[in-house]
Each structure stands twice: as structure tokens, then as C-alpha cells.
Structure prediction request, 273 residues.
Amino acid sequence: MLLAGDGGDEIFGGNERYRRDRILARYNLMPGWLRHGLVEPIVRRFPAETLDLRGKARRYVERASLPNPERFYSSEFFVRQNRRWLLHPDFQAVTTPDRPLEIARGHFEAAAAKAELNRLLHVDLKITLADNDLFKVVRTAEAAGIGVRFPLLDHPLVELMATLPASYKVRGSEKRFVFKQAFRDLLPRETLAKVKHGFGLPTSEWLKRHRGFRELGRDLLLSSCSLKRGYFAPGAVEELFRRHEADRTPFYGDVLWTMLMLELWHQRHGDAS
Prediction:
């Protein structure tokens, strides 16, 4: 039996996207006449894709102007945001572009909390934690004959944290504020100040550097069998591989990895049926 720390970020406010959303929310403290009448008309003239200050200003204003939970997910849902060039027209015709956000919006609106941060924490409890992280941890551990328990998801603790103001969780640029205050006399200063590290695998790097994974990804995703499924527009997968090679971040590699898992699922389950 193992004890896991899953849930701590979602109840104490430990994920970087919570701090990032607070930064975006500051834009709306500016008077509406100034935002809509001066700032937004100016930044719309800036090129959106450049990496200089003009491009950053435009992207910030565009994201900050969105209501939540759209703003919260503005850097995610790659397929939804790029569906026009990524997805095959026939596939676009039978899918709903806003479906991923509809699920998040339903949880956001159902939350009893008033503060946006607390509502976003509720969304993450429902989607990130319940639909992804706990499922992944429990099933992986079960495969090794191990049970897992989650003390930070003890109901009284979760319910207590849900009643606390948002400033107890993210205060300024500091995440997990109340947690650090509670443990400041128990944990070393280095632990409390430690930068958060995820548990992601370097799948993007494997698809770029590892000969076996590199060949596997291209052989499967560029095969006639995969391309005939009708998900992606002609040339879209090739474009993703091109962007992946040119990009120093794991962004496009992570997208390709997800697509690769979908293709392997088809070959193991879908095609057999």
C-alpha cells in the first residue's frame, strides 16, 4: 500500500496555471473604456505570432479578455484551437468545436464558490484529478499489485479548503500559501521554496532523438492506414512533425505522442473489431 500526494495542488492552489490565471485576470482591473477603447484596438495591429514584446502584448490581451473557464484553458485544447488546418473537413463537419469547453464550463458554473480561483479548483478536481490523474495512478499501481491511498483527498480536508478564501491558496505570485504557512515549522526552508516539478515522461524528446521511437512515430502516423482514418487534413501530420523538429519545447511532441497513442489504440482495439 502506498500513500500518494495527488489532490494537494487542486485543493491548496499549487499548479502554475492558477498563478498564470491571476496574472491574466489583472487586465480586467483596468477600466472597460480604456481596455476596449484604447488598448485592444492598438494591440490588434500587432503581429500575433512574433516573439517580441508586440506579439506578447497581443497574446496577453487576447487571452486576458476571455471569460473563464475559456481563459483558464486558453493555452490548452490544441486540436480545438487549430481544427481549421489540423482536422479533415469531413471530420470537422461531424464534430462540435466547443465540446471540450462545454464540459469544463458545466463544472465551472456548477461550483458553489464565488471566487474564480475556487471555481477553477473545482473544475480541476472534476477533470484533471478525477478523470485523469487518479485514474492513471490507481490503474498503474494495480498493474503492479499495489494499492494507493490519497490522504490529501480526505473529505473533511477537501471540504475545509473549499470554504477558505482564494487568497489563502494563491496570494500574489505565491502558490499553496496556506499550506506553506501551516508547515513552515515542520518542513525545511528548501522544501517550501522548491520549484514544482511534474512527473511527465520525455516523450517529445524520444520522438525527436530516440531512433526507435522516432521511426515508430513516423511509420505509424504517416502510414496510409492512419491517414485514411479521416481525422486529419492532408499534410497536417507532416506539418506537426516539421514544427516538432523546429521547436525547442516539448509542445508539438506531446501532441504527436497523443496522436500516436490514438493510432496504437485503433490498431489494437478498433481495427480488430
The radius of gyration is 21 Å. The chain has a mean pLDDT of 90. The chain has two domains: 2-68+84-193, 203-270.
